[in-house]
Amino acid sequence: MTYSLDSLLALPRQEREQAALLLAEKARRAAVAEAWPLEFRNAETGRAYAPHHAAEQEWVESDGPRYGLLKGGEGSGKSTAGIIKDLRRLRRGMSGILVSPDFEHFKKSLWPEFRRWCPASVLVEKDRLRLAPEWEAHSPFEMHFLTDHKVISTLYCGGIEDPSGWEGPNINFAHFDEARRHKNAVALKVLDGRVRIPGPQGESPQLYLTTTPRKHWLYEYFGPPLADDPRAAFKADACVVTLLTADNEQAGNVESGYTRKRAQTLNDSERRVLLEAEWENIDDIDRFLPSITLWDTCREDLPPLTKQEPMVVALDAATSNDSFGVVGVTRHPARPSDAAVRFVQEWKPRKGIIDFQGSEDDPGPERVLRRLISEYNVVQVCYDPYQLHDMATRLRNEGLGWFEEFPQGPGGEKRPGRPIADKQLLDLIIARRIAHDGNAALRAHLDNSDKKPDPETRKVRIVKREQSLKVDLAVCLSMASMEILRLNV
Question: Which residues, including other chains, have CB under 8 Å from residue 230's CB and lie 6 or more apart?
Answer without folding.
Answer: none
